[in-house]
Amino acid sequence: MVVKKTALRKDTFKDIKNSLGRFISIVAIIALGVAFFAGVKVSPEVMEYTADKYYDDYNLMDLRIVSTLGLTEDDLNEISSIPGVKHSFGTYVMDALTQYKENEFVIRMHGFSSEDQINGMRLLEGRLPEKPDECLVEFGKEVSLSLPIGSKLKLYSGKEEPISDNLENTEFTVVGAVQTPYYLSFEKGNSDIGSGKVRDFIMIPQENFKLDVYTDIYVTVDGAKELNSYKDEYFDLVSVVEDRIKDISKNREDIRYESIFKEAQGEIDKGKNEYFEEKAKADEKLNEAAKEIEDAKKELAEGEKELNDSEKAFISAISEGKEKLADVEEDLIKGEEEYEKGLKIFNESKIIGNEAFIKAEEEMKQGDESRALLEENISQIKAVLENPLLPKEEREKLTVDVRTAEGILEKTREAVESGKRELEAQKFELVKAEEELNKNKVILTASREKLEAEKLNLIDKEREGLLEIENAREELEKGKQDLVEGEEEYINAKEKAEKELKDAWEKIQDGERELNKIEKAKWYVLDRNSHYSYVDYGGAADRIDAISRVFPVFFALVAALVCLTTMTRMVDEQRVNIGTLKALGYSNGDIAFKYIFYAMTATILGCIIGIAIGYIIFPIVIFNAYGIMYLLPPVELKFNVFLALSVSLGAIGLTTITSFFACNNELKEDPAALMRPRAPKVGKRILLERIPLIWNKFNFTYKVTIRNIFRYKRRFFMTVFGIAGCTALMLTAFGIRDSIRTVVDRQFGTLFAYDITVGLEPEGEKYLNENKHIEDYELILSESGTLSLDNINKDISIIVPRNSNNIDHFIRLQDRKDEKKIHIPKKGLVITEQVGKSLGVNIGDELTIKSGEDKGKVEVTGITENYTFNYAYLSPDYYEEIFGREVEFNQAIGTLNNTSKEFQDSLSKDLIKKDRISSVSFNTGIRENFEDTINSLSYVVLVMIISAGALAFVVLYNLTNVNISERIREIATIKVLGFYDKEVSAYVYRENTILTLIGTAVGLVIGIFLHRFIMVTVEMENIMFGLKLEPLSYGYSIALTLVFAIIVNFVMYYKLRNVEMVESLKSID
Amino acid sequence: MNKYIEFKDVKKIYQMGEVKTEALRGADFTINKGEFVIIAGASGAGKSTTLNILGGMDTVSSGKVMVDDKEVSRFSKKELITYRRHDVGFVFQFYNLVQNLTAIENIELATQICKNPLDPGQVLDAVGLNERKKNFPAQLSGGEQQRVAIARALAKNPKLLLCDEPTGALDYNTGKSILKLLQDTCRQMGVTVVVITHNLAIAPMGDKVIRVKNGRIESQILNSNPIPIERIEW
Fold this sequence. Notes:
A: alpha+beta, 23 helices
């Protein structure tokens, strides 16, 4: 006969149906635990898988080769021919400065060759470049520049040489926006131009680069794509090719070094030749000049001599002339004297003569008058005669008169005439004499004039002559002086020429020395472990993994306890059944199977639900939360079968074992005992009772409650633990939010009290003074540097304020724990907390600080509270001492009297226009960016809170259920005694409440530690999270826990109300 | 004669899924104040059901139940609780003491909610457990536990004392002493006592014997001369 156990099986299935509440609570707690564990555990995998797929889709390089002396085409060919190398791509990477929205940024240019090049890109907007002056930009998030399609980018080098030396085009049009696996994280690296930090990248067609060597060669390895790059097998495969490349590197390095060396040597030789040529030329010129000077000297000497001779001759000529003139003058004086004599005589004669003349003239005049009269008479008479009417007598008279008159007239006329003639003759004689005298005078005058003229002439000539000699002498002197100057000039020129030649020679010498110093080329073959984005993201995944090791243990414990209690209760309730089955002859195995089956079914169901939820929700939430910090494609969910199975098996094992333990005890007893009611648990005095002082103060009902609490120890621990877990989770969740909040609030509120950062040259300071909206400011130097200790290097920003004492208005340096202010000492370094931790340094320790090429040892005198990035603060004097160069302030940080957005925009526009000011940024902007990042993490927090609530609910529900079931008789009894429903509830709930309160308190303590653990684990490279929990978080956690507890109690109220007295108190037989 | 308690055509039907169980098919009886009533019948006859209804722990499906001029069958749930609180004292077969409380505390549990209770200490005394006041039920014997239970019921100063097979779990002698206690209480304190038993031998000790059969009252017999329990042997 076949043994069928169908009835037993029916019983089993009925059990499930009849106690659905219990069944579901096991399903729920398992689902919760599995979801959490599997979800959190698979998330890092999903993260890595998604990233790896992204790497594969867009050909992220497996190896990157750079060389200190660049890589040639030959190098590329050599690399390509190495077995195992799938593709190789030689390209150029260069930094440039550009301006966007009036701020200056450093961008990194990458070469673009084709869409499927190694380190390719995912086109998200626009198109790929078709012309050489087109470019691609990053399709970014809020913190990226997000240059719009169509905008033009003008690039400049930021160094002395213009960028057109290295690039064909210097202005590019943005045609497309992309994302590339090469830059997963926002961190793009450091630069030696501009602000020192690379802000963004662009891709420009390779033809643009005028460099004759590649800056980078990227390599992909055969078979690497198929492997997950976060796993060891990948590195095993890649390192083989890596080694092969390293093998040829030595040879290639030498070749490269040789060629450079030769080139450099050639240059130096050229230089030397030039030098010698120039030297010869210079020598020639100098010699010529020397000769000229000699000639000039000679000429001057001759000239001088000539001058002296001329002077002598002149002087003698002048004195001769003077003598001659003196003689002439003597003669002339004689002549003049004679003349004077003659003149005197003449004048006397003249006077006499004139008197005579006057007389004569008077006579003549008389004569003339008479004549005139006569004439008139004549005329009259004639006139009368004319008259024909004239009487004859009259006429005759008249005619006689006329003839007489005329006769007189004639005679008069004659007399007059002769008188006149004589007068004339006399006059003439006088005149002649005067003429002669005048002639003589004239001659004398002329002679005198001549003499005077000659005298003047001589004087003039003398003066002229002397002047000329004077001048000549002056010129000679001048000439002498010129000569002296000329000699000096010559000497100077000679010296200068010698110096220049010396310098040139030194330069050549230097050049030769440098040439010898040229280090051999060094190749660096880097795999993905040296790639920042890859490592950073991998780190993020690791951190999640770390969390997954802690949390789930928690849930597992709770799940185990819940399971244990539930199954124990169930077994207990069915005690009689078990006894009966045993009595009927079913084996222990058969009976145990029933409960194990029950638990297993619940567990399997819970696992399925848990894995379904966990594998979907957690990876998505976590991925997206981290996705804010990285530029990634959408998540690729992965179903890790192994994990799912192992978690399920674990869960099943857990519940099976607990079920087994639960029923084992019962099964040990014999059927008869089982069928009798279980001896109720012994009531005992508790410790507190022995202190009558306290005990008697208690209300009767409280005595019952307290006794009950201590009576059921397992229940006590379970409730406390479950509640504590819930509170702890919530506190952690709120704490995460607080910690992240701290970063923003404390960093940009308390610690960085400044509102504005202006990038400028020192001359630009005056514009800040002028601007009345800037309340106060301080100049600082901000540059990138490194702190190192024992081979650990950490990148930091070095901050040197001009006035170390004034800086606390803007940057508050303080100890995190006691908020005591930290000063920047004269000699000493203040570093931020996170970097201090990473390097393991304390106050008083020494470490090395490096900036550019210079470095020095410094002592740490203060460790300051700081959350974002890492800084090292020191005084300008100390900076100079360490680095041996003066501080060049390049930034100003200041406070504003108005921080509204419109105001800031207009202020920024004003400042940027000014000369010497290169960039303006506001802390409100940075703060907003962070807040956005952080807000997205709220989802994570929300999930945690919901899980916590669910946990609390399930635990409490379960426990209360068990509680009621265990004490159903008691509850029924007091109902019988006449307790109202509310009183019955209170009877049960008083315990619950006290346990909940204790659980909450314990939970707060656990929560503090859990929160701390998580915050420290998820810490990223450049962000330190605050560890302080806000009082409000404590408040919320407590409140929410209590809310959940109240909800459970509310649900249970109805159950209590429906306890059937009759049923519950049914006699056992 | 005072109809202190009256059952009139009381029916009780239990519905469990499709299964209908008729526990009482029309029970009629009366009980007078201060009577010691024995309700006897075979297993499943409906004795317990009667007692439960009488004690306000269950409701009738139809019919009328009067107790001290109050229609208990019409009480709301709350009124039933109040009824149980002040007017009824119940003694179970399996004592149903709260394990976590001492003897005296068990009684205090009941007296704390009554409006006119007796002093717990005195009642415990009355049942002869003065020295056992501070013992937990687990430290008491079966008889002692039942006595505590009875004390608990009595301390409430109820109108009715209902006992469902009070001696079921006790041995012969202990059982007898319990019954004596009940009888004395009835006589001395004037409490109406109703005892369910399937042991017909003790029927003579009651003032009235009600026989239940198949959900109906078979007979109500008055004993004019009830015999003290010490004299009954079985």
